[in-house]
Fold:
Amino acid sequence: MKTTMLFLCSLLVATALPAQETKQWRGNRTGVYSEPNLLKSWPAEGPKMLWHYDGLGEGHSSVAISSGKIYVTGLTGDNGYIYAFDLQGNLLNKKEYGNEWNKSYNGSRGTITVNDGKLYLISGVGDIVCLNESALDVVWKKNMLSDFDAKNITWGICESPLIVGEKLIATPGGKEHNIVALDKNTGKLIWSAPAEGDLSAYCSPLYVGDQQTPQVVTMTAKHIVGIDVATGKQLWSFENINRHAVHPNIPVYSDNMLLCTSGYGKGSVMLRLTDGGRSVEKVWEAPELDSRMGAMVKIGNYAYGSGDANKYWFCVDWKTGELLYKDNSLPIGAVIANNDMLYCYSDRGDLALVKATPEKFDVTGKVTVTLGTDQHWAHPVIHKETLYLRHGNTLIAYKVK
Structure:
């Protein structure tokens, strides 16, 4: 199943994944799923709730799913815990993994990455933790701030580790050790890239494997950078600054093009990889398309997302940057997609089903999320016929097939 062709077609994943697995951030880092026969509209009361679990503690991380198990993290007291559920919502295991972020907007942040029988997470205080999937025991642990001479950022490190082959990629944000590759089995340093020496910027790295030089792309405090995944050499850099040095949205990649977007007055820029991935050029900019942390998805020749200062949902032409619609009938938030449908989770707790069409923001179903605590920031996940939604202390499963 994990063929070379599937690997090349996925582009954004570190290794080819079975179609029904959700082993890392935003499924395969694109936020686009391909489940068959999901509902195109919902009844008036919304999709059926299958189950919910109230007891995760504080957090904003999404779920990762592998081999019939759901993994998610949460903060209780000063410590982070990892939870394992079966697909029916039964708690199978719970283990502490160490200190977690409790200074502002408390809770776990980065989503778990599952790879070759191990779970990998990065805490808000900078711990990189590798656990075995069978018992949730810690295999190895490093702190990327103290071990790589870096500083934490205002709202705590928020990054989901990227696995490429035998390497784990993370962004400490140090002057010398800015982006690092560790041996995924031992935590030993393989390479260290100084990049531009910026602080980390809440961005999870992306793997682009179809260039002459396969690379890691990420956004740091002031730059978008491309790093040779084999050597750690910086291939290119593009200045990208907003008011607060916050760039939480993973870039969207397709056909040599990288869409990079953030809020706080910046907006979106489209870059084209050139010279086999060794350089970039700017294609277009769209200041109005300023998603703060809700990410974007590409469906066909269009990209969809919502704004920050510009409190609209948008559709933009992927190639030209032309804004095709903007709609404020739903509060802004996070977006994922399945085939030709968008799933929009607003920061006010609205979960909406929307047709992915450039003509208009066409809502075909909506439900209000009333369970859970604190901010509506975690990104939804689709697995088989179920949509999983984390709202603070609560994990909810909706039937969407």
